[in-house]
From TrEMBL:
Coiled coil: none annotated. The keyword Nucleotide-binding applies. The active site is at residue 166. Pfam families: HIT (PF01230). One of its GO terms (molecular function) is nucleotidyltransferase activity. Residues 70-179 form the HIT domain. SUPFAM superfamilies: HIT-like. Substrate binds at residues 96, 168. This is ATP adenylyltransferase. A motif (Histidine triad motif) lies at residues 164-168.
Amino acid sequence: MTDRPGDHPTGAEQSSSPESPGSPYLPDELAEQDGVGVPDPFLRLWTPHRMAYIAGENKPTSTEAGSGCPFCRIPTLSDADGLITARADAAYAVLNLYPYNPGHLMVVPYRHVADYTELTPAEVGDVARLTQQAMEAVRIVSSAHGFNIGMNQGVIAGAGIAAHLHQHVVPRWGGDTNFMPVIGQTKVLPQLLSDTRALLAKSWPTD
């Protein structure tokens, strides 16, 4: 979302002290933190959860199947804990833990297989059907204008977890690539993943 005139408080609306709780300059938990420096008019987006992604904390160290592979482990969890939005016989749909956009889903076969050509006809069918359903659910929940759909095959092609195939379903809206990701390398996600999962699961179409 881009800023518009009037989006930020001015004049009397900014009468509270920058050092006081409720300051428009600092989050309450930082308002009285020692050493925060001189207050300024900039708002900060604190995203410490992304350090796990930056540091590669959740990236498997082995290419083998099992609990060390996130995509093998996720189906053993409850839907809510695993952020799963739907399950089919041979594949499942799950929210991306580090989404590009709100509602960024992945469709994953249960079987630990790396290459698309190794999927069985049943797996191909479930991956395709879940992809269609993901698009329908996201359109219902957030009126996506379009989608990027695809899979990165191999590390050289950009796959973060190359050993277990997964297809991305990324919703897109007009203007969603603004100055934040282009200049600041930051995506602004306005909704908790647990809330997104609940909305999509509720709106998921049935066969």
